Amino acid sequence: MRSLVARLGAASAVIVGLLVGVPHAGGAALDGHAVATEAQCAACHLVPEVAAPPRTANCTTCHQWVRTVAANPGAREKAMTVFPNWARYETSVQSYFAVPHLGASFARLDPAWLRGYLANPWDLRPAMPESMVLLGLDGPELDALVAWAARFKVTAPPTPAPDPANVARGATLFATRGCAGCHTFGRQSLGPGIAGAPDLRWARDRMDDDMIAAWIQNPAAISGAATMPALGLGAEESAALRDYLVLADPDAGPPPAKPAAPTPAAGRAAPRWADVEARVFGKICVHCHMDPAQNEGRAGPGNAGGFGWPATGLELQTRAGVVAAQDRVLAALARRYGEEARDHVGPGEVPASRPLQALPGMPLGQPALPVEDYEMVKRWFAAGAPE
Description:
Layout: H1 2-8, E1 21-23, E2 29-31, H2 32-38, H3 59-70, H4 73-82, H5 86-92, H6 102-108, H7 111-119, H8 139-149, H9 167-176, H10 179-182, H11 203-206, H12 209-217, H13 219-222, H14 235-247, H15 273-281, H16 300-304, H17 319-324, H18 326-343, H19 371-382
Antiparallel strand pairs: 1-2
Helix pairs in contact: 2-8, 7-8, 9-14, 12-14, 15-19, 18-19
């Protein structure tokens, strides 16, 4: 992505209206569509006007394919003969099944909110195992991307201003019309919710008041890509439910129970490569840090660059590649723990504020390694990385 800036001009961008191209001081412009394409938004999401990459370069469709094959006995038998680690794929593929369609997102989200979220993403969906990855985009690139996304924004019909007198009625509608079956709402409703549904404590920040009411009444009227069903509510009921979401205190309720923190195991024998490869590098890291020799030339976005980040040259599919990157691997895994309080929260929790680091922790967008697995990797390195 840095090469995109170099090709297109100076690194100072200003959003002018809702233009696709964002002008620079040097006269050239960054094109938001090009930014979205090179930042690989379509590797996880369906994106308006951006072609989906092939399955071999698409997190979502690849994982969906693994699940589909696993459910078909004949196809699974064939896959077991082609892919030696197929059984591992079936257990390790647990994410990217409920990723939002960006057509529905762009149609309703406030562009200013979207800009801040992309610059410093945090966990919106407590039931989703993955969170939005931190993109390696600079300010002008983010400006261009958001200006392009704003082209798809829909204007909702005007509604009366939120009225505190409607909050009680809205709370009843929330409880009786099935909202709590999909969504959490701060401590007001702890879920558990479903993976694709955001915590509604953020609705008042993500959308304007008119849009919230319109979305509640008929999501499909805002975007044909909407997955939320219409609840059969009229305009007044939709406004009352909206008023509950924007005026009620989402933290009015008992704090959620916190699970006990795991403690690292001590005194165990040093693991071998087969152990750390099965539980860490071959299960997680290989998705982005491939060995091109084993993948028809593909190196993955972590090795060759992707999501706006430059290439790292880290190949983590082979023992030799992992050993050569020992210090960088341990540092990246450790950084992820500092991001956890922002990137992964449970129902009723609020992401902690964390300053951005120069480099993101790993695995990108996924929960940090279980403490026991991280300690296993450390023990393996300390023992000389035995084969």
